[in-house]
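Can't paste images in this forum, so I'm doing it all in text. The chain is below; anyone willing to post the predicted structure tokens underneath?
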Amino acid sequence: MSKIQSPCVGVCKFKRSGPAGQHCIGCSMTEDQKKISKSLKKPKAMRAFLALVMAQQQVMGKYGHWRAAYLKRCLKKGRRVPDEVRDAS
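Text version of the structure:
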């Protein structure tokens, strides 16, 4: 099974305020969440984390750009698109 791509889309600008502090304008993760995502090794844990980030984006709003950017990043890195992203339309 191939590695799950991180929710990060390579923007990394923490300019959006949220309940957990500053969030990235590209993916909605906080700096702490970005650190956590780098430490996740098991696909099951990464899929769960990806679902959490997607739910966070939905609550915060204004992340409609993320899915297309994530799909492009998966393609560039040669990684399979997780079902959680593929099914979320």
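The chain is about 50% helix and 10% strand. The chain has one domain: 14-78.
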